[in-house]
Design brief:
Radius of gyration: 37 Å
Distance between the termini: 79 Å
Keywords: Endoplasmic reticulum, Glycoprotein, Glycosyltransferase, Magnesium, Manganese, Membrane, Metal-binding, Transferase, Transmembrane, Transmembrane helix
Largest sheet: 7 strands, mixed
Number of helices: 43
Structural class: alpha/beta
EC number: 2.4.99.18
Catalytic activity: a di-trans,poly-cis-dolichyl diphosphooligosaccharide + L-asparaginyl-[protein] = N(4)-(oligosaccharide-(1->4)-N-acetyl-beta-D-glucosaminyl-(1->4)-N-acetyl-beta-D-glucosaminyl)-L-asparaginyl-[protein] + a di-trans,poly-cis-dolichyl diphosphate + H(+)
Number of strands: 25
Subcellular location: Endoplasmic reticulum membrane
Helix content: 40-55%
Shape: globular
Membrane topology: Multi-pass membrane protein
Length: 1084
C-alpha cells in the first residue's frame, strides 16, 4: 500500500467521522429540545413567539407582499400597527419558505408545526456553523468540540427549545455563519467570501435586531488589526467589500431602512471604512516618499481627518441628519440608566444584570474552560484569533450587563472551550508508542554509543516539552472526560426542567410526585374568544398582548412590541388609579374587558401585583402629577398589599381586581381568609366593592381574572341643549333650586373653560319658545379672567402689530360673568352687577366657577380628520432620516392613507370622524378647517366631503370644509391627468352638490403646489376653477422647494396659506396685503 493511498484512506475516515459527529450533534441538539412537546403538546411558548406565529400564519395565508402591508387592527388600539414595517421578517420568511417547499413536495404540514420545530432544527445548523468557525480559528478537532458544546449548551437551548418561535432561534445560526464567512474572507482576501459574508449578514439583519453587535464587532476587529500593525491588503479587500454590500443589503429590510447611514450605532462601521481608505493610501505612499514626509503626512493627515470626522459627526447629529445614540445603547454602559430614563426596559426581567449563578447555570464547565482557550489564542495570536479574543471579551461584558445577552456569549464560550479541550487533549493524549517505535527503528541500524546518546537526548527533550508524566496526563484526561459527562448531564437536566416549560401552561407536583397541569391562561383566552364580541377590546398589561391577540383573537391596547411608551403609561395609569379615574381612561380608550394575572391562590410569583411597581413607575414617567411611586409604599417605606398598605394602594384598580372576593377565600386548612400565598400574608383590605367594573370570568385556579367595564346609564353626555363645558366650581343657590326641574344643568370639575362662537350657539337648536324656556340660557359667574381677543363687535380679527394687544378682562375678586340669551348669543360680558343679579330668576342654568378662566374656542386652521388606516410605522423611517418625499416615494405618506380611505365605507369614516370631533371639543377646539385629500378620485373625494357636511347635529363643532383633491398625484396618473379630472369632472360635481344643499360645509379649495406634485401652472388652473365654483382659495406652497407658489397664490386672493420652511419666511411678504391667515407647521 502506497503512502498516498494510506493518506487518502485516513482522510476519508476522518471526513466520515467528522460527518457522523456533526450529524449526531445535530440529532442530539434537536432531540434535547423536544421535552416540552413530549410532556405537554405541540404548542407555541412564551409571549413574543405568539405574535411571530400569528404574523407567519398571516403571511402564509395572504402572501408576502400583503404581509409587508398588513395593518393589524388587533394591536395597539386605537392606533393599530403596520406589521411589515415594524418587524424583522427573516423568521416569518424562513418558516414560510420551508412551508412552501414542503407543500410543493406534497408534504402538507400546518404552519404551526413548522414554527414549533424551527428552532430545534436550526440548532443543528448552528452547530455546523460553529464547527466551521472554530475550524478556521484553530483546528477541525476544536471545531467538533465546539459544535457538540453549542448543540446542548443551556445558554443557547434556553432560546431554541421546541415551541420557542422567536428571532433568536435562527439568528444565532446567522451570527455564527456570518462570523465564519468573515474569518474566511479575512484569511483569503477574497471578494467572493466577503460577498457571501454580506449576504449572511443581510439574513441576520432580517432576522434579529442583534445584528448591531455584528456591525460593530467586525469594524472593531479591523481597527484592532490596524493598531496592532497587522494591516494587509486582505483586510482592505474583505472589509471594504463586506461593508459596502452589507450596508446596501441591510437597507432593503423595511424595518431597518436608512438606519445604517442615519444612526449613531452604525457610524463606527462607516468610520473604520474611512480609516481603512486612509491607511491603504498611506501604505501606497510609504514606498514613494521619504520617511520624514511619510510621518508628517501620516500623523498630520490622520489627526486632521480624525478631528474633522468628529466635528462632522456632531454637526450631523445636531442638525438631525444622524440620530444620536439610543437609550438602549446607554443602558448597556450604565446599568442604572434604564431604571431612571426608560423604566419600561428596566421592567423586563431578561434586561436585568446577570448573576454569577446564571453564568454557571447556562455554561457549566465551559465557563471555566473558555479562559484556557482564550489564553491559547492570545499565546498563538494571528489575524483571525484577534477576532475571537475581541468577541469573547465584549460578549462577557455585555452578558454581565444584561442576562438576555448570555445568548451572544454562549457561542464564544463554546468556541473557546472547544479550543481549550481540543488543545489540552491533543497535548495529553499523544500516541507515544508511535513516536517511540519510530525512534527505535532508526536506532536498530545504529549500534554505536553515539546513537544511543542521541536517543537519550531526544527522549529528554520530549519529556521536558510535555512537562508531566504519563500517569498524570492519564488522570487529567480522565478528569476532563468526567467533566464533559457532567456537562452533558447538567445540560440535559437544565433543558428538561428549566427551559422546557411553556409559559402558557403551568405545572406542579403533588407529594406523591404526580403532575398537576394548570391551564388557566388558555382557559381564559378561550373564554374571551367564545364569549366576547369579535371587536371587543381587552386592556391588560403589555406582557399579555401578544397572547391575547394570538389565542383569543381579540383587540388589545398594548403588547410586547413596547414601541409607544405613552400608550403603555396610560394603561399603567389606569391600573394605578382609583376606580373612577381608571373608568374615565378606559372609557376614552373604548375598553370592554380588563384582564389581570393573580397568583395569590396558587403561589405564582409572576403575577401583576409583583409587576405593579413597574406599572406605577412607567405611568409616573408620563403622568408625574397624577401618579407618584411614593404613594404606593407603606408608612415605613415598604411595598406591601397587607395590613400596612397605603390608602392609594388599597384603592387602586389593580388591587381591587386582584383581590376582589379573595378576602372570603381560604387557600389552606389553617389559614385565614384572604391569605396571599405569593406574598405570604393576609391582604390589607377584604371588603372590596366594585362600582364601575364587574367580574366577568375567573379561571379555575384564579390565575387569570377578567372584568367587564360597565356601561353606566347615567353617564353625562353633551346633548343639543347641554353644551356647557365642565367647569371647576360649586353650584349656585339658584341652580340648586332649579336642579329638579332643569335636567340639563351640569356642574362638574375643571379649572379652565371654553365658550363656543356665538354663531354656533344659534345653530345648535336652542329653543326660542318663551313658554318653555327662560329669557336667558346660561350665566357663568365667578370668572377671574375672560379672554376676548377683540372688544369691538365690528372687528373680526387682529393683524400686524395689533396681534400683540389681545383684549383680556380681569377681576382680582373673581367678579366677571358671561350671559347667553335664548338665541345663543352673548348678551353680556363683563362685571357681575345688581342688574344681572335681578335676572337670575330668568336664567336656565347658573354656573359659579370660583376663579375660572373663559377663553374663546380654539380654531384648528389645518386638519385632515376624515381618513382610514394609520401611518405609525413611518415614524421609524423619519427617525432614520427619511424626508417627506422619501416616505411618499416608498409607498407611504398620503398614498398609504389614500388606499385605506378608498377602501373604507362612508359610515365607518363618519363614525371615526365623529369620535375625533368629540375629542377636539373636549380639548377646546370649536371651529375646524377640515380638508379632504385622501381620496384623489371622484368617488372618494365626494365621500369625504359628504362626511364633513353631514356631521351629527349633536356635535357642536363649526366646520369649514375644504376640497383638497389636489393633495397628491395617485399611482397610475400624471399631473396633467389629475388636473383635468379635478377641473373637468370633480369640481363641477361639487358645485352641483353644493347647489343641491348636500355639501353645505364645503367652502374652500386647496392645492399642494410643490415640485413633483402640482406645479405653479396646474395649481393656478385648479384654484381658479375652484374660485369660479364659489370656493375660497387656500393653498400649500414652498414646503419643500421654492417654485413661486406663494406669489401665484397671493394673486388669487387667498383665505389661507401654508408656507413651512423658515428659510423662506420672506414669502410671507406676498401675503401681508391680503386678509388671509397662514398656518406655520413645525418641521418634523
Amino acid at each position: 500500500m502506497t503512502l498516498a493511498t494510506v493518506k487518502n484512506s485516513r482522510l476519508g475516515a476522518t471526513t466520515l467521522l467528522t460527518f457522523v459527529i456533526l450529524a449526531l450533534a445535530w440529532f442530539v441538539g434537536f432531540a434535547s429540545r423536544l421535552f416540552a412537546i413530549v410532556r405537554f403538546e405541540s404548542i407555541i411558548h412564551e409571549f413574543d413567539p405568539w405574535f411571530n406565529y400569528r404574523a407567519t400564519h398571516h403571511m402564509v395565508q395572504h402572501g408576502f407582499y400583503n404581509f409587508l402591508n398588513w395593518f393589524d387592527e388587533r394591536a395597539w388600539y386605537p392606533l393599530g400597527r403596520i406589521v411589515g414595517g415594524t418587524v424583522y421578517p427573516g423568521l416569518m420568511v424562513t418558516s414560510g419558505l420551508i412551508h412552501w417547499i414542503l407543500d410543493s413536495l406534497n408534504f402538507h404540514v400546518h404552519i404551526r408545526e413548522i414554527c414549533v420545530f424551527l428552532a430545534p432544527t436550526f440548532s443543528g445548523l448552528t452547530a455546523i456553523a460553529t464547527y466551521f468557525l472554530t475550524k478556521e480559528l484553530w483546528s477541525p478537532g476544536a471545531g467538533l468540540f465546539a459544535a457538540c458544546f453549542i448543540a446542548i449548551s443551556p445558554g443557547y437551548t434556553s432560546r431554541s427549545v421546541a415551541g420557542s418561535y422567536d428571532n433568536e432561534g435562527i439568528a444565532i445560526f446567522a451570527l455564527q455563519f456570518t462570523y465564519f464567512l468573515w474569518v474566511k474572507s479575512l484569511k483569503t482576501g477574497s471578494i467572493m467570501w466577503a460577498a457571501l459574508c454580506a449576504l449572511s449578514y443581510f439574513y441576520m439583519v432580517s432576522a434579529w435586531g442583534g445584528y448591531v453587535f455584528i456591525i460593530n464587532l467586525i469594524p472593531l476587529h479591523a481597527l484592532a488589526l490596524i493598531i496592532m500593525g497587522r494591516y494587509s491588503s486582505r483586510l482592505f479587500v474583505s472589509y471594504t467589500s463586506f461593508y459596502c454590500l452589507a450596508t446596501i443589503l441591510s437597507m432593503q429590510v423595511p424595518f431597518v431602512g436608512f438606519q445604517p447611514v442615519r444612526t449613531s450605532e452604525h457610524m463606527p462601521a462607516f468610520g473604520i471604512f474611512g480609516l481603512l481608505q486612509i491607511v491603504a493610501l498611506m501604505h501606497y505612499a510609504r514606498n514613494r516618499i521619504t520617511r520624514q514626509q511619510f510621518m508628517t503626512l501620516f500623523v498630520g493627515g490622520l489627526t486632521v481627518l480624525g478631528g474633522l470626522a468628529v466635528v462632522v459627526y456632531f454637526a450631523l447629529v445636531w442638525g438631525g441628519y444622524v440620530a444620536p445614540f439610543s437609550g438602549r445603547f446607554y443602558s448597556l454602559w450604565d446599568t442604572g440608566y434604564a431604571k431612571i430614563h426608560i423604566p419600561i426596559i428596566a421592567s423586563v426581567s431578561e434586561h436585568q444584570p446577570t448573576t454569577w449563578v446564571s453564568f454557571f447555570f447556562d455554561l457549566h464547565i465551559t465557563a471555566a474552560v473558555f479562559p484556557v482557550g482564550l489564553w491559547y489564542c492570545i499565546k498563538k495570536v494571528n489575524d483571525e484569533r484577534v477576532f475571537i479574543i475581541l468577541y469573547a471579551v465584549s460578549a462577557v461584558y455585555f452578558a454581565g450587563v444584561m442576562v438576555r445577552l448570555m445568548l451572544t456569549l454562549t457561542p464564544a464560550v463554546c468556541v473557546l472551550a472547544g479550543i481549550g479541550f481540543s488543545y489540552t487533549f491533543e497535548r495529553y493524549l499523544k500516541d507515544e508508542e508511535k513516536n517511540g517505535s519510530g525512534a527505535g527503528s532508526k536506532d536498530e541500524k545504529m549500534y554505536d554509543k553515539a546513537a544511543k546518546n542521541a536517543k537519550s537526548k531526544t527522549t529528554t527533550t520530549e519529556g521536558e516539552e510535555n512537562g508531566v508524566s504519563v500517569n498524570v496526563r492519564t488522570v487529567i484526561a480522565v478528569l476532563l472526560l468526567i467533566f464533559l459527562l457532567m456537562f452533558v448531564v447538567h445540560a440535559t437536566y437544565v433543558t428538561s426542567n428549566a427551559y422546557s416549560h411553556p409559559s402558557v401552561v403551568l405545572q406542579s407536583s403533588t407529594q406523591n410526585g404526580d403532575r398537576i397541569i394548570m391551564d388557566d391562561f388558555r382557559e381564559a383566552y378561550h373564554w374571551l374568544r367564545e364569549n366576547t364580541a369579535d371587536d371587543a377590546r381587552i386592556m391588560s398589561w403589555w406582557d399579555y398582548g401578544y397572547q391575547i391577540a394570538g389565542m383569543a383573537n381579540r383587540t388589545t391596547l398594548v403588547d410586547n412590541n413596547t414601541w409607544n411608551n405613552s400608550h403603555i403609561a396610560l394603561v399603567g395609569k389606569a391600573m394605578s388609579s382609583n376606580e373612577s379615574a381608571a373608568y374615565e381612561i378606559m372609557t376614552e380608550l373604548d375598553v370592554d374587558y380588563i384582564l389581570v394575572i393573580f397568583g395569590g391562590v396558587i403561589g405564582y410569583s409572576g403575577d401583576d401585583i409583583n409587576k405593579f411597581l413597574w406599572m406605577v413607575r412607567i405611568a409616573q414617567g408620563e403622568h408625574p402629577k397624577d401618579i407618584r411611586e411614593d404613594n404606593y409604599f407603606s408608612a415605613s417605606g415598604e411595598y406591601t398589599t397587607g395590613a400596612a398598605a397605603s390608602e392609594t394602594m388599597l384603592n387602586c384598580l389593580m388591587y381591587k381586581m386582584s383581590y376582589y372576593r379573595f378576602g372570603e377565600t381560604r387557600v389552606g386548612y389553617n389559614q385565614a381568609g384572604g391569605f396571599d400565598r405569593t406574598r405570604g400574608y393576609v391582604i390589607g383590605k377584604k371588603d372590596i366593592t366594585l362600582e364601575y367594573i364587574e367580574e366577568a370570568y375567573t379561571t379555575e385556579n384564579w390565575l387569570v381574572r377578567i372584568y367587564k367595564r360597565k356601561k353606566l346609564p347615567n353617564r353625562p353626555s353633551l346633548k343639543n341643549a347641554d353644551v356647557t363645558i365642565p367647569i371647576k366650581g360649586k353650584k349656585s343657590q339658584q341652580a340648586k333650586k332649579q336642579e329638579g326641574s332643569n335636567p340639563t344643568s351640569r356642574h362638574c370639575h375643571q379649572s379652565l373653560i371654553y365658550f363656543f362662537a356665538a354663531k354656533k350657539f344659534a345653530e345648535m337648536g336652542f329653543s326660542t319658545n318663551k313658554d318653555c324656556m327662560p329669557e336667558f340660557q346660561l350665566l357663568i359667574t365667578g370668572l377671574k379672567q375672560i379672554v376676548q381677543i377683540v372688544d369691538n363687535s365690528d372687528q373680526q380679527f387682529l393683524k400686524g402689530g395689533e396681534m400683540k394687544n389681545i383684549k383680556i378682562l380681569e377681576s382680582k375678586n373673581n367678579n366677571l360673568c358671561i350671559l347667553v340669551d335664548n338665541s345663543g348669543k352673548f348678551s353680556y360680558v363683563g362685571e357681575f352687577s345688581e342688574e344681572i343679579q335681578k335676572k337670575k330668576e330668568d336664567i336656565g342654568e347658573v354656573i359659579e366657577t370660583c376663579g375660572g378662566i373663559a377663553i374663546p374656542g380654539f380654531v384648528d386652521g389645518h386638519s385632515h380628520p376624515v381618513f382610514a388606516g394609520d401611518r405609525v410605522h413611518e415614524f421609524a423611517m423619519k427617525l432614520a432620516g427619511a424626508s417627506y418625499m422619501d416616505v411618499q416615494n416608498a409607498g407611504g405618506g398620503i398614498m398609504f392613507t389614500t388606499t385605506r380611505t378608498r377602501e373604507a365605507k362612508e359610515e365607518d369614516l363618519k363614525r371615526d370622524f365623529e369620535k375625533i370631533a368629540w375629542k377636539m371639543l373636549k380639548n377646546g377646539t370649536t371651529t375646524l378647517e377640515a380638508k379632504s385629500g385622501y381620496g384623489l378620485d371622484i368617488e372618494t373625494e365626494l365621500k369625504m366631503l359628504r362626511v364633513l357636511s353631514n356631521i351629527s347635529p349633536q356635535i357642536p363643532l363649526e366646520i369649514s370644509a375644504t376640497f383638497c383633491g389636489a393633495h397628491a398625484i395617485p399611482k397610475g396618473s400624471t399631473e396633467i391627468q389629475q388636473t383635468r379630472m379635478i377641473c373637468d369632472e370633480l369640481l363641477p360635481k361639487i358645485e352641483h352638490e353644493k347647489m343641491a344643499g348636500n355639501l353645505g360645509n364645503v367652502e374652500n379649495i386647496d392645492v399642494f403646489c410643490e415640485k413633483g406634485v402640482f406645479e405653479v401652472a396646474t395649481s393656478r388652473e385648479i384654484l381658479q376653477r375652484g374660485k369660479e365654483a364659489g370656493l375660497a382659495v387656500n393653498f400649500h406652497a414652498e414646503e419643500l422647494v421654492y417654485i413661486g407658489g406663494v406669489e401665484m397664490g397671493a394673486k388669487l386672493g387667498p383665505n389661507g396659506a401654508r408656507p413651512v420652511d423658515k428659510k423662506k419666511a420672506f414669502l410671507i411678504l406676498y401675503l401681508c396685503p391680503m386678509e388671509s391667515y397662514m398656518t406655520l407647521l413645525p418641521k418634523l
